[in-house]
Predict the structure of MerC domain-containing protein.
Amino acid sequence: MRMSPASLLDASAIGLSGLCLAHCLLLPVGAAMLPALAAAAEAEWLHLLFVAIALPLAMVALGRAHRRRPLPGALWLLAASGLAGLLAGAIGWPAHALETPSTIAGSLLLAAAHGWNWRRRPHPACDG
């Protein structure tokens, strides 16, 4: 089955949220086991890179999704909250101790928004 460009964008955004979640949960465990990875787990540029990729991808995926049915405000709010959580985690706001929880919450909220967006779109039946 061939995916539409909008579905591909949502799938990419969900995948990126999953990578972000894996980074937040798995890399610190790996860093604890292998001290050489500690620097990578704390690399601030990596967090900013994830946000820099997620922001335009999310906006394009959600913005061009439905021409006939505009997105509900709640979906935009969910996506904006997710992006705000990712950004807050990337810059360590309001406290460095909240970086991981903020990033995890943000990635889950953004993935939920893309999942909701994907479910709103009509999907052709699989021909088998």
